[in-house]
Design goal:
The complex is a heterodimer of chains A (325) and B (363). In chain A, 37% of the residues lie in helices and 19% in strands. Chain A has 325 residues and is an alpha/beta fold. The longest helix of chain A has 15 residues. Classes of the chains: A alpha/beta (325), B alpha/beta (363). Chains A and B meet through α3, α4 and α5 of A and α5, α6 and α13 of B.
C-alpha cells in the first residue's frame, strides 16, 4: 500500500470525489495553476479543467459567499482558504449564512460545501498563519468541524466531509502536512463524521485532543508507559458534532483526564469537554481535569511559538499531576 | 511625456415617464395594454399589502416590519422582466418582488410575524429566503449564477439590495467576481436614498452608484426608479444580455423610501416633511395612473375595482395567516442539520420533556 503524507492524502481524496461526482468543484486562491500554496490541489486543474478548479480573485468572503450560492444551486463546492487566519474575513458568510441556509429555508435549501483551511502553529510562518480558533466555528450551530490527525484519517474524513449534506469546515494541521507518512489505501473509503477514535488503549488516565496535538500527546503517552502509567488516547476527529459517548466511556473507565489543544485556553473547546465530563461523569473522577493549551495571547511569531505550543513535556507534566492526586 | 487620458467612461440615465405621466414615446417598452394594467395592479397590491402590514404591526399582530412604500415601480418593474425559471435573491424589503413572483402573501405575513414557516417558499418559485445582514447575500446570487452557467442552465439571477449595501465589502467581492467570470447576474440596487438615518451621500462620495460597475468591468446604469417603464426596460435588457452570455449589469434604481426604515424606526428624527414632499408627488403608482389616464387605460371605476380586489386578496391572506396553528418547538432543532446530531437530539428532548411536564394535567 502506498505511503502518503497528509498533502498527498487530501489531494487523492479530492481527486477521487471529483471523479466520482461531477458536481464537486474546487475554488480558492492559487488552487489551479499553482496547485495551492501547500500543493494540496496539485494536478486537479489539468485533470478537471478550469470550470471545476477555479482560481478566484483574492477574496475570502467572496469565495465562501459564492460557494454558498453554488451549494444552494446544487453544486458541491470545496473552497480553500489559504490559512485559517484569513478565514476571518469569511466568518460572516459562515456564521450568518452557510450555517443557516437550511434553517432559514426550513430545509428547502441546503449548503453542502466544504471549506478546507490549514490551521495551527509550528510552521515558522508570519503573523496570522498559525491560528487555531476552531472553537469559534464549533460555537456556530449548523456547521460541522472536522480536524484530521494523520494521512489515513485525512483522506477518509475529507471524503465524508464532501459527501455530507451540511457545511463542513475541514481544518488541516499544516504543521504535520508532510511530517507523517502512513499507508493510505488507493481505493476510496470514508470515515464517519461525529465519531471519535481511540488511538491508544489505556487504564489509568484519558488524554483527549485532535489534529496536530495528537503527536506530542501520543509521545507523552508512550513516555508515561515507560514509567508504568497506562494512558488512553482519544482523537476527537470531529469537533462538531462532538462524540460525547466516546469521551464518557473512556473517562468512566480511567477516572483521570488531560485535555490538550493549541488554541487559547479561555473559551477553548477543552472547556466544553471538561464541562461535559463534569455533567455526566463527575462521580467517576479521581482527580481534577487538567488542560494543556495555548495561552490567552495572540499566537506568537516563530521565535516564541515553541513556548506557546503544548509539547510532550507539558503533556507529561499534566499526566504526572493528575496521577499524583 | 504629457499625461493623457487612457480610458473615459460615462454613465447613462433613463427616464421614460415624466412626473406627469407623459411618455417619451419612442422609448416606451413593448407592453400590451393588458400588461400595463397588470403592472398597475401589482403595484397597488404591493401598496395595499404594505399598508395592511403596518396596520397589523400597530395592532401587535405582526412583528417589526420594513415597509416598501415608494419602491413599488422598482420592484414590480424589475420582477416583471424576469422569466419564471430565473432566480431572485432578495434582501428584506422586497415584498413587491415576492408578490409578483407569486409568493403567497400569507407567507409574507407569517415571516414578518416571526413565524419561520413563512420562509417555506415553494422551490419552483426560485426565490431565495430573506437575507437580513445588509449586502451579504450578494455573493450567493453570484455563486448561483456561476453554478447555473457551469450547468448550462439558461437562467439569470437577479439580486436586490439598497444603497447602504454598496458600502459593504461583500458588494465589492461579489461584483468583482461577477465581472471577472462574466456571470449571468443582474444587480438591482434600489437606491431609496436612506440607510436607516443616513442619506446616500453618507454611503459614497461618488455622484452615482451606477458608476461603481465601471470599476468591475461591466455596465452600470441609473434609472428613474419611480418610473416603472424605465425600470422594466433596463431590467429586461439586462436579463436578455445575461441570458445571451454577455455578462452582468448593475442597475441603480433611484427611488425613495417614503416610510420609516422599519416599524421600529422614526424617520422624523432625521428627515423633515419638506424632504419627503417632492417624493409624494413622484409616487410611482400615481405616475403610472397618470400615463394610463392619458392612454385611456384608466377609469375611476377601474381604479376602484383594482383597489377593492387588492384589499380582498390581502384580507384573505391575513385570514389564512392568522389561522395557522402555533409552530412546533421541535422545528427549532429540525433544520439545523440534515439529520439531528446526537447533541441536538439531547437538547431537543430536554426542551420537549420540560414542556411536557408543564402541560396542564388532563383529568
Amino acid at each position: 500500500m502506498p505511503r502518503l503524507n497528509i498533502v498527498q492524502a487530501v489531494n487523492q481524496g479530492l481527486r477521487q470525489e471529483m471523479d466520482r461526482n461531477p458536481a464537486v468543484i474546487v475554488l480558492g486562491e492559487d488552487v489551479g495553476l499553482d496547485g495551492g500554496v501547500f500543493r494540496v490541489t496539485e494536478g486537479l486543474l489539468a485533470r478537471f479543467g478550469e470550470d471545476r478548479v477555479i482560481d478566484t480573485p483574492l477574496s475570502e468572503s467572496g469565495i465562501v459567499g459564492i460557494a454558498i450560492g453554488m451549494a444552494a444551486y446544487g453544486l458541491v463546492p470545496v473552497a480553500e482558504i489559504q490559512f485559517m487566519g484569513f478565514l476571518y474575513g469569511a466568518m460572516e458568510q459562515l456564521i450568518s449564512h452557510a450555517s443557516r441556509i437550511r434553517t432559514r429555508s426550513r430545509g428547502r435549501y441546503h449548503c453542502p460545501l466544504v471549506v478546507r483551511t490549514p490551521y495551527g502553529a509550528g510552521i515558522h510562518a508570519p503573523e496570522h498563519h498559525s491560528e487555531s480558533t476552531e472553537a469559534m466555528l464549533v460555537h456556530t450551530p449548523g456547521l460541522k468541524v472536522v480536524v484530521p490527525a494523520s494521512p489515513y484519517e485525512a483522506k477518509g474524513l475529507l471524503i465524508s466531509a464532501i459527501r455530507d449534506p451540511d457545511p463542513v469546515i475541514f481544518l488541516e494541521p499544516s504543521r504535520i502536512y508532510r511530517a507523517i507518512k502512513e499507508e493510505v489505501p488507493e481505493k476510496e473509503y470514508s470515515i464517519p463524521l461525529g465519531v471519535a477514535r481511540r488511538v491508544r488503549e489505556g487504564e489509568d488516565l484519558t488524554l483527549i485532543s485532535w489534529g496536530a496535538m495528537l503527536q506530542p500527546m501520543v509521545a507523552a503517552a508512550n513516555h508515561a508507559a515507560t514509567e508504568g502509567i497506562s494512558a488512553e488516547v482519544i482523537d476527537l476527529r470531529t469537533l462538531s458534532p462532538i462524540d460525547s459517548e466516546s469521551i464518557l466511556v473512556s473517562v468512566r473507565k480511567t477516572g483521570r483526564v488531560v485535555i490538550v489543544h493549541e488554541a487559547p485556553r479561555t473559551g477553548g473547546l477543552g472547556g466544553e469537554v471538561a464541562a461535559l465530563i463534569a455533567e455526566r461523569a463527575l462521580d467517576y473522577l479521581e482527580a481534577p481535569i487538567v488542560r494543556v493549551t495555548g495561552f490567552d495571547t495572540a499566537v506568537p511569531l516563530p521565535k516564541m511559538e515553541n513556548y506557546y505550543l503544548p509539547n510532550k513535556e507539558r503533556v507529561l507534566q499534566a499526566i504526572h499531576h493528575v496521577m499524583e492526586v | 511625456m504629457p499625461r493623457k487620458p487612457i480610458k473615459q467612461f460615462s454613465v447613462e440615465w433613463l427616464q421614460i415617464l415624466d412626473e406627469q405621466g407623459q411618455p417619451d414615446r419612442p422609448l416606451l417598452p413593448a407592453l400590451s395594454p393588458k400588461e400595463i394594467q397588470s403592472l398597475y395592479e401589482w403595484m397597488v397590491l404591493a401598496r395595499v399589502f404594505d399598508e395592511k402590514a403596518l396596520a397589523l404591526q400597530r395592532e401587535g399582530r405582526l412583528g417589526t416590519y420594513a415597509p416598501v412604500r415608494g419602491q413599488e415601480a422598482t420592484q414590480v418593474g424589475s420582477a416583471h422582466a424576469l422569466g419564471p425559471a430565473d432566480w431572485v435573491f432578495p434582501a428584506f424589503r422586497e415584498m413587491g418582488v415576492g408578490i409578483v413572483r407569486g409568493i403567497p402573501m400569507r407567507m409574507l405575513f407569517q415571516y414578518w410575524s416571526g413565524d419561520e414557516r413563512g420562509s417555506e417558499i415553494p422551490l419552483h418559485q426560485h426565490y431565495f429566503p430573506t437575507s437580513i445582514p445588509v449586502g451579504t447575500h450578494i455573493p450567493h446570487a453570484v455563486g448561483a449564477a456561476w453554478a447555473a452557467k457551469l450547468r448550462k442552465d439558461p437562467v439569470v439571477v437577479a439580486v436586490y439590495f439598497g444603497d447602504g449595501a454598496t458600502s459593504k465589502g461583500d458588494f465589492h467581492e461579489a461584483m468583482n467576481m461577477a465581472g471577472v467570470f462574466h456571470l449571468p447576474v443582474v444587480f438591482i440596487c434600489q437606491n431609496n436614498q436612506w440607510a436607516i438615518s443616513m442619506p446616500a451621500r453618507r454611503q459614497t462620495a461618488a455622484p452615482t452608484l451606477a458608476q461603481k460597475a465601471i470599476a468591475y468591468g461591466f455596465t452600470g446604469i441609473q434609472v428613474d426608479g419611480n418610473d416603472i417603464f424605465a425600470v422594466y426596460k433596463v431590467a429586461k435588457e439586462a436579463v436578455e444580455k445575461a441570458r445571451a452570455g454577455d455578462g452582468p449589469t448593475f442597475i441603480e434604481c433611484l427611488t425613495y423610501r417614503m416610510a420609516d426604515h422599519t416599524t421600529a424606526d422614526d424617520a422624523s428624527r432625521y428627515r423633515t416633511e419638506e424632504m419627503l414632499k417632492p417624493w409624494i408627488a413622484k409616487d410611482p403608482i400615481k405616475r403610472l395612473r397618470k400615463f394610463m389616464d392619458i392612454e385611456s387605460l384608466w377609469t375611476s371605476s377601474y381604479g376602484e375595482q383594482v383597489r377593492t380586489e387588492a384589499e380582498r386578496r390581502v384580507a384573505e391572506s391575513v385570514k389564512e395567516f392568522e389561522a395557522q396553528p402555533p409552530p412546533d418547538p421541535a422545528d427549532m432543532f429540525r433544520y439545523t442539520y440534515y439529520e439531528l446530531t446526537p447533541p441536538l437530539k439531547e437538547q431537543m428532548d430536554d426542551l420537549l420533556n420540560f414542556l411536557k411536564d408543564r402541560e396542564p394535567k388532563k383529568e
